[in-house]
Amino acid sequence: MKVILLKDTPKVGVKNDIVEVSDGYAQNVLFPQQRAERATPEKVAHILKAKKDADTAQSERVQRIRKTIEELGSIQIATKANASGNLFEAITDKRIRAELDARTIALTDKELHLSKPIKHTGNATVDVHVGNWKGVLTIEVVAV
Predict the structure, then answer these.
(1) Of 23, 41, 59, which closes a domain?
(2) Are 50 and 16 in contact (CB under 8 A)?
(3) Are residues 77 and 111 located together in one domain of the fold?
């Protein structure tokens, strides 16, 4: 029996997957626990259209972020530092995401990869992985 999953179900699939399961499993487990519903042609078409729309939106988001980051090349962050260039407060990925948010680039913690907090003035690189695109953003840390 083909069903559409309404919730993530271990060993079966994730929400909105269209899967084939045995009739007994669907009738005795999935339907009573409201984890799935029958896959009618209308519901399948609706799910496939929604997935296509989500993929299109994600693709547009990746292109927009890619273009903006490539145009920026680097961002400058000003913070307090001592005479030898050591920062009083390390710059973390959270701070970098806040700086990018101010420039209308919204990244999640999984999309911005900072290997370790920045603790010195100068340049540092941050990997950005959005969708299937990978890029590098240079962070220029200057003392105030």
Answers:
(1) 59
(2) yes
(3) yes
